Amino acid sequence: MTQINDIYYLPIYSASYYWLGGDYKTVRFSEAVDKTQPWIKYTVQYKDSLFTFMTIKNNKIILEPRKTEFVGPGPDELGMPKPHPHEPIVPTISAFKMKI
């Protein structure tokens, strides 16, 4: 969670991949998959899709954590520059609780 100007932001992305672009393309599966899905080499895939459950209970917002891993090398291993601290490229959703 990030707080900017007294506003709380909870970035949650339900995703199975993240677009990296041409500078970081790599064949992650097989040449056959790459041939039928030519865009896939420009992405980094999550092994499992990322999602969370949000519960509102007893005047609290609760987000459950979720963790997976990248298929093949992740952004750090590919030498990508670090993204903005509020937009990390990570295969996790952190646990979160906030009183409302």
Please tell me about this protein's structure:
The protein has about 100 residues and is mostly beta strands. The protein contains 1 helix and 9 strands; from the N terminus they run βββαββββββ. The protein has one helix at about 30-35, and strands spanning about 1-5, 5-10, 15-20, 45-50, 55, 60-65, 65, 90-95, 95-100. The two termini are about 15 Å apart.
Number of discrete helical segments: 1
Low-confidence sequence ranges: none
Round the mean pLDDT to the nearest integer and report it: 87
* Main sheet properties: 3 strands, antiparallel
Please write the string of helix (H) and strand (E) elements.
EEEHEEEEEE
Structural category: mainly beta
What's the SSE blueprint?
Blueprint: E1 2-4, E2 7-9, E3 15-19, H1 31-36, E4 43-50, E5 54-57, E6 60-63, E7 66-67, E8 92-93, E9 96-99
Antiparallel strand pairs: 1-2, 3-4, 5-6, 6-9, 7-8
